[in-house]
Design brief:
Length: 367
């Protein structure tokens, strides 16, 4: 009986572990084959050219984790190799996740994307009267990029940072232009907190990360002990140097995560376990300005949706977001028409995640 009990315990533990992993195909016959040797060669070459110490990569196809690998060093000083479970600061890749948190509350009937921000935050100025939650999420509000109250070395409440931006004149009339805005995501995080009745990190954990099985995703912190955390570096004078990270938690660059966890979130999005397909389609749709044109932040853009920038990569429609914070450079790119997603996290300030991701995507077969 003891032997049988032990076998059952091991079997249950194994099943639990497997259930937390991103979906994998039992048969690869129906999925396009990957040239993993070419991917490895390309990534390694570009890392050397860009002086990237460590990198983790995940390639997902229709919710199935097809390839995940770590390259280089997560920590140079301690000679720790990067793996798919290495924890990186994902920087602004956090923005589509914060937007996803708002989308959950929209589906629950507690918020609307057309809600004016003044409905949810006290004391907003008259200049913000036309600003909606959608304007905040798609960078068309006209609000200044950074709050005058933000200081990387000081911990302040999200509302304090947002309220300090109230007196600052709008850069342009709301809805007339698109310009990147970090303080806007502080405001969205504060709306989540006030609407959910709990701190936004707790809401995100319960509503987004736990349902996805994203067990290693958490708010950024330089004080907490984080297993498998990558150190951050910059290349200067022919060698790597440590980079000091922000003490403050920025909702605009909110989370630490791994490529395996982001692959789990991608699988949950694909399966419709986080939001309904219509909500995801809405997030991937370019926002229109007041004159009916598509808002763009750069000439190569095809627009910006709810937390995602839309572009094209080698003829493929691309829905993506990159990130830059301290020594971390990151990219989460989705190709919804084909089912591919490429997730790439690095700990080198000189990394060019767009180029890295684009080179990997060129090697992916078109289904």
């Amino acid at each position: 009986m003891r032997i049988l009990h032990s076998i059952l315990v091991v079997a249950l533990a194994t099943a639990t572990a497997l259930s937390s992993m991103p979906a994998r195909a039992d048969s690869r016959a129906a999925s396009p084959p990957l040239d993993t040797a070419a991917i490895d060669q390309t990534v390694s070459r570009l890392m050397a050219e860009q002086n990237v110490p460590g990198l983790a990569l995940a390639v997902v196809y229709k919710g199935e984790l097809r390839y995940a690998k770590g390259y280089g060093k997560a920590n140079i000083e301690h000679d720790i190799t990067a793996t798919p479970d290495t924890v990186f600061a994902i920087a602004s890749v956090s923005k589509p996740l914060i937007a996803l948190g708002v989308a959950k509350l929209v589906e629950q009937g507690k918020l609307g994307w057309s809600d004016p921000i003044s409905k949810h935050l006290p004391g907003t100025p008259d200049t913000w009267r036309a600003v909606t939650l959608a304007h905040l999420a798609n960078h068309t509000s006209g609000i200044v990029r950074e709050s005058p109250a933000f200081e990387g070395d000081k911990i302040k409440s999200d509302f304090e940072v947002v309220a300090a931006a109230y007196p600052v004149p709008l850069a342009f009339p709301t809805g007339s232009k698109m310009q990147y805005c970090n303080v806007c995501y502080f405001a969205l995080a504060e709306v989540i907190t006030r609407t959910a009745g709990e701190p936004w990190p707790r809401f995100m954990e319960r509503e987004v990360f736990q349902p996805s099985g994203a067990k290693d995703t958490r708010p950024t912190s330089v004080r907490d002990l984080v297993p498998r955390r990558a150190a951050s570096y910059e290349w200067k004078d022919g060698k790597h140097h440590n980079v000091r990270e922000y003490v403050a938690l920025r909702p605009s660059g909110a989370f630490l995560s791994t490529v395996n966890d982001l692959a789990r979130i991608e699988a949950a999005l694909t399966a419709g376990r986080l939001v309904k397909p219509d909500a995801l389609k809405h997030a991937e749709t370019p926002a229109r300005l007041n004159d009916g044109s598509v808002g763009k932040m750069n000439p190569n853009s095809l627009g910006y949706g709810i937390g995602w920038e839309i572009s094209e990569q080698d003829g493929r429609r691309r829905v993506a977001h990159g990130g830059s914070l301290a020594g971390f450079r990151t990219m989460y790119a989705r190709y919804p028409d084909e089912g591919w997603a490429v997730i790439l996290l690095t700990n080198g300030g000189g990394a060019r995640p767009n180029a890295l991701e684009g080179a990997v995507t060129k090697l992916l077969p078109k289904p």
